[in-house]
Structures are given as structure tokens and as C-alpha cells.
Design a protein that fits this description.
heterodimer, A: mainly alpha, Arc Repressor Mutant, subunit A, 2 domains, 3-stranded antiparallel beta sheet, 3 strands, 62% helix, 8% strand, elongated, B: alpha/beta, Rossmann fold, 6-stranded mixed beta sheet, 11 helices, 34% helix, WH-like_DNA-bd_sf (chain A)
Chain lengths: 125, 288
């Protein structure tokens, strides 16, 4: 969990990503309670309406669900949804910048492939 | 409470403080009121608080003018930079008077905060240090629980840890009880995360009124080779341009971050404080 937020990016989005990370990193498990709007607002000293916006988007996406009067909880399919979402974003967030940089350096496709394979080998060891 | 400014104009002798401003604040939110010195922020707050009459146009609260109208002013609390209270009053008298004026007054909160900020109830306002006087203002503002509470640069002399405590209490209180809070400060980096909406004044005009997260998304800097960036910004609102060693960094407003990234630019967000500086600085500033 970050101890502070970045004022140059939408805050609701950062709250959303924090919850997603907590779920992906297993720090909140399926069926467990997610921090409330007020807990986020107090911890980060942010506007509760902004925190609520991030939380509500995750409810809409089916990642968390609301139990009336109790709070927000991680849904059964949360991980499946989040993995798919991250996979979709992977190409854009990692592959595109990788290709852009490779082009700047005049790396050939072969060289790029070689590097990707090399990375895999060292991972295996 | 609904606040409406209609063609609001205020002039002092030959200086125009507010120049034909119209907008409305309809929901209880925390609004950040930003701008340089002399931009018109304080004048606006004083008209809204019923302390000044506009030269032209009006500010209406739930359809009524606040000037000389206790029904409205008892719902409005304005804490200024200083001179909020008569110097000869004791701290406890300040609290008593405020408790009689504001129907929404929270005495328990007032005394809790007096204790937290270590204020002595029996001393006169004139013997308080600058920081302590500011603390008293903040306490009255918070405990008033007025449906419209305004803080106009309320913390001269208040140290960083006391300011931090103020923000904490503000968030807690706001959660318990939503109200319209209008916050004007130059310490934007400290409080911008609290603002749900931002209003930026410049030269007596309202130049920005937007959701804060919306601004964080739609205002950003793009960097790249000069010709490429020039082409990108050709039909956009540019608030700042800096060229260095063949590379141009331009800050745009109302643009699409994702699209800029897809075009291969280095894209960087702009904090609210920086945006305010870009929009209101004389050199190359302002929306073009």
C-alpha cells in the first residue's frame, strides 16, 4: 500500500488500483472486507466522495460487492476479472513502450526476441 | 444550500475585483478556491458571507441575498486570515457568541478542539499568538457546522503539524456531516486531495470550474521533438510551453491522455498547484 497518493493522477483511480493490488497480492482474500470509503478518506486525507467513486467502480465491475450495513467484500470472481483486466492492459502498458524504446535503439526483431528468451532462462534458474 | 452567482461584479473605486461572474455551486462538496493575490477570491467570499454588497449582479443562497439577512447568514461561517474576533474578548466568550449565532453549533467539538490545540479559555484574543488566533478561527469554523463554511487562508502562523490535524478533523467532520466547504489557500499541495471541485479565479474572472479528478485526467504535459509536439498541440488549449535542447514540453488542458500516449509522446500528469501556476502566471500563462 502506498503511503501517499500522486496529485497529478485522478485520485479515484489510484484508490481503485490500490484495492486491485491488495486483491492480486493476496493481502485481502476472497470474501474478506475491503477498507471503507471513510477508512480510505481518513488514511489518505482525501475527499470521501473521491474514495467512494473508486470503490463504486469496482462494485460495478463485479470485483467487490456491498453487504448492506456491513461493508464491501471481495467477490468470488474478483481475481479472474482482475487478471483479465491486467492482461488486456499488459500489451498497452508494457509491450508498446518496449517496442517504442527498441525502435529508438534500432534493435531488430531477432535481438528483441533473443532478449525475451534470455530473460526466461534466467528466471528458470 | 444552493449558491448562485449571477453576473456578479464588485468594484472598489477604480479597481475591478470581480468582473461579471456567473456560476452555481449546487451540492455540498469541498470546493478549492484558488488564484493569485488580488484575483477576487476574498471579495467573492465576503459577498457570499453577506459582508459586502455587490456593485452589480448578485450572489443568492437558496434564492435569497445574504446581505443583512440573518436567516441566511446564520448558515454561513467565514473564517478569514485574521481579525475574526474582537481583540478584547476572552476565548470562552468567542465560543459563547458563536454558539448563540450558529443554530448548528457543536459545543462538544469546540471544547474537544480547544483542548487538542491547547488553547486557554480565559485569555483574551489580543494575547494569543498568531498561530493560536488562527487555531481559534479554525475551531469556530469547524464547530459552527454551518451548511456553508468558508476558510480564507485560515492558518497564518499555524505550524505544519497543527495544519495536518486541521485537515484530519476536517475530513472526519465532513464524513459525519456533509456540508459546503469553500477553501481558499496558497498551500495547494497540502490540501488539493481534499477538493472535490476546483474553482480558479484570475483577474476577477472565474477561469476554471471543474471536478478535481477530471482536471488531473484532462490536463497533462506531453514531451517530444519540437515539430511533433507542435503538430499535436495545434488545435488544443495550451497553458505552458517549454523548449529545451530540441525537445518541447507542452501542457494542455481538456485533452485525452490515452490518445497522447498512443501517439508515442511522453505523457506526465500535472499537479493542481502547477496547473494553477500555469493558468495564472503573467509570462506565457493563461489559456490560449
Amino acid at each position: 500500500m502506498n503511503s501517499s497518493l500522486d496529485d497529478s493522477k485522478p485520485i479515484f483511480q489510484q484508490i481503485k488500483e490500490q484495492i486491485e493490488d491488495m486483491i492480486i497480492n493476496h493481502s485481502i482474500l476472497e470474501g474478506e472486507r475491503v477498507p471503507s470509503t471513510n477508512e480510505f478518506a481518513n488514511y489518505y486525507k482525501i475527499n470521501p466522495a473521491t474514495a467512494a467513486k473508486g470503490i463504486n467502480q469496482l462494485v460495478d465491475e463485479g470485483v467487490i460487492y456491498k453487504k448492506r450495513g456491513v461493508g464491501m467484500f471481495v467477490s468470488e470472481k474478483a481475481k479472474t476479472i482482475l487478471y483479465q483486466k491486467r492482461k488486456d492492459a499488459f500489451y498497452f502498458n508494457y509491450i508498446i513502450p518496449l517496442k517504442t524504446e527498441a525502435k529508438k535503439l534500432n534493435l531488430t526483431k531477432e535481438e528483441l526476441n533473443e532478449m525475451l528468451m534470455k530473460e526466461e532462462k534466467s528466471d528458470d534458474n | 444550500m444552493i449558491i448562485e452567482a449571477n453576473n456578479l461584479t464588485k468594484t472598489y473605486k477604480n479597481k475591478i475585483a470581480l468582473n461579471d461572474i456567473s456560476f452555481s455551486l449546487e451540492e455540498p462538496k469541498i470546493y478549492g478556491l484558488l488564484g493569485r493575490n488580488g484575483a477576487g477570491k476574498t471579495t467573492f467570499m465576503q459577498v457570499l458571507a453577506g459582508l459586502l454588497l455587490p456593485t452589480n449582479g448578485s450572489v443568492l443562497v437558496n434564492g435569497q441575498t445574504p446581505f443583512d439577512n440573518q436567516k441566511i447568514t446564520e448558515s454561513i461561517c467565514l473564517i478569514k486570515e485574521g481579525d475574526n474576533f474582537k481583540k478584547d474578548l476572552k476565548v470562552k466568550n468567542v465560543l459563547t457568541i458563536a454558539s448563540m449565532f450558529y443554530p448548528t453549533w457543536d459545543n462538544q467539538l469546540a471544547f474537544q478542539l480547544i483542548d487538542e490545540f491547547s488553547l486557554d479559555l480565559n485569555v483574551k484574543v489580543k494575547t494569543l499568538s498568531k498561530g493560536m488566533e488562527s487555531a481559534l478561527g479554525i475551531i469556530v469554523g469547524l464547530a459552527s457546522k454551518a451548511p456553508i463554511t468558508m476558510f480564507d487562508e485560515p492558518y497564518i502562523g499555524l505550524d505544519a503539524s497543527a495544519r495536518n490535524r486541521f485537515y484530519e478533523v476536517l475530513v472526519e467532520q465532513y464524513q459525519e456531516h456533509k456540508r459546503t466547504i469553500i477553501f481558499s489557500t496558497h498551500l495547494i499541495d497540502e490540501v488539493s486531495l481534499l477538493f472535490e471541485e476546483v474553482l480558479i479565479f484570475e483577474g476577477g474572472k472565474l477561469i476554471v470550474k471543474d471536478d478535481t479528478d477530471e482536471l488531473r485526467e484532462s490536463c497533462f504535459s506531453v514531451s517530444g521533438p519540437v515539430a511533433k509536439v507542435e503538430a499535436y498541440i495545434a488545435n488544443k488549449k495550451v497553458v505552458n510551453k517549454q523548449e529545451f535542447a530540441g525537445m518541447l514540453t507542452a501542457t494542455v488542458l481538456n485533452a485525452n491522455k490515452q490518445a497522447a500516449r498512443e501517439q508515442g509522446f511522453d505523457v506526465e500528469g500535472v499537479p493542481i498547484q502547477k496547473l494553477m501556476i500555469y493558468l495564472t502566471s503573467k509570462q506565457g500563462g493563461g489559456v490560449k
